[in-house]
Description:
The strands form two sheets. Strands 2-1-3 form a three-stranded antiparallel beta sheet. The protein has a two-stranded antiparallel ribbon with strand order 4-5. It is built from six helices and five strands. The protein has helices spanning 52-59, 62-88, 91-102, 120-127, 131-143, 160-164; strands spanning 2-5, 13-17, 37-40, 147-149, 153-155.
Amino acid sequence: MRLTSRSKHQPSAVTAILGVGDFFGGLCLVGLPLRMSTAVALTSSSIRVIKKESMIRMLQKKKLSNSFVSYLLSCIKKYQDHVAELLTSPAERRLARVLLRLANLDGKGPSVSELPTINHQVLAEMVGTTRSRINVLMNRFRKQGFISYNGGIEVRKSLRKVLRSQ
């Protein structure tokens, strides 16, 4: 799932790539307006809706509260890492990280061999670069054997090498 945020006079930006067990929409718990972000499923998904009042009641129970706070802190860490990466990492490394995350080869959840159909413009938005730059990088990854195209994009674990280089 892709989480996108948009300001009034600016284009939208992908702020997170969510996976199995991830939570979104929590900003409503602190009184922010609805629809601060848009979540778009990239594959068939099952989403559980929890009403604000129910969530607040559940958070008052210490066990859920501690778990949820831990989850939120890990989200803050991910967002900080994401922003730092956007500011400091080249597009090649950012694309590798996005592809590994989409294929669940980043160590979370079961891995998939083939990504859902996703066009280069969407990848460019997720990476924070242009579609033409994504085309160049995807061709480079294909030539290096990190990915293959067979109707969809197949990501190989060897793509992790891009994260360790540079």
